[in-house]
Amino acid sequence: MHQPMSVKKRSRWTRLRAAHVVCALMAGIAGAAFAQNNAAALAPNAPSTASIANDAAAQVAKLTLEQQVKWLRRAAQSGTLEQMDDAQLVALFESFDPLTVPRYIEEGPNGYPSYEFTMLRQERIRGVWPRKPDHMLVRLTRDPLRIYGKWLPGGPHSGQEIIYDESRRSDAMYGHLGGLFNIMPLWTSIDGSLARAQSNHRVRDLGTEFITQQFLDEGRKFAEAGITHPAQIEVKTLEGVRVIAFTYETPTGQPEFYAKKEVLGLDLRHPYFRMVESYGNDGQIFERIVFVTITPKIFEDMVFDPKNPEYKF
């Protein structure tokens, strides 16, 4: 973590105040927090220069942990993070207390009570990395957990469909393999060999919340191993999704940790991850997930009914 910069002399702030006021009005999110620390408000909408990015990071570094979490939440919700260029984002997140991002994510919300998302997913199954990712449409609602999933065209399992409804059967899902012959739908265990043939995860693991919880669980192990800061912070754009990505490398890797190295891409508007890449002890990637779209929605019961005429069960 970067140490806070020394406080400038009052005369210098006086000379710069006029220039900072215009930018601070554009940012419009951090005045109160910075006033408590006798610092000028940030200007994330100002022209992108290395000096401005470093100055913003220095100001954020002066805040307490609680203030940083609140500032980050406001900056995300207002769209300020999205408007920052890559250099500003990297400098900003490098200046945070090591606990700021985990606290921001833990406080959530890490998803929605009911939402639809599309995702790209690749997993190494029995040592084989798929040539193309699966492209999926998922509709999910909670209390009770109900899931409809469809494999979209362009992926290796196009046409497959599944429905999971824990209020009907918490231990099984209903689905068909799709394809040309549209094999008869059947019930199968969520932990059975058929379910694991295409994924190392259960159907209940679909969604942004699972990745969040995995990050928090692994984070506790990171702390115990002395890992308090990502090995790298960078901006990535995958499938049109721009994220701030954190790379964590573990000293021992598997089986003590889920992966030897993980790259997690944080959404710039919400406290959940839009992408994750996991690497084994051999350095090979074994999992990549990208949430391309995430849309809150309210669903009728028919969405989770195999008799829905839109489906091919």
TrEMBL record:
InterPro entries listed in its UniProt record: DUF1571
Top-rank taxon: Bacteria
Signal among keywords: yes
Signal peptide location: 1-35
Keywords of this entry: Signal
Protein name according to UniProt: DUF1571 domain-containing protein
Organism: Paraburkholderia franconis
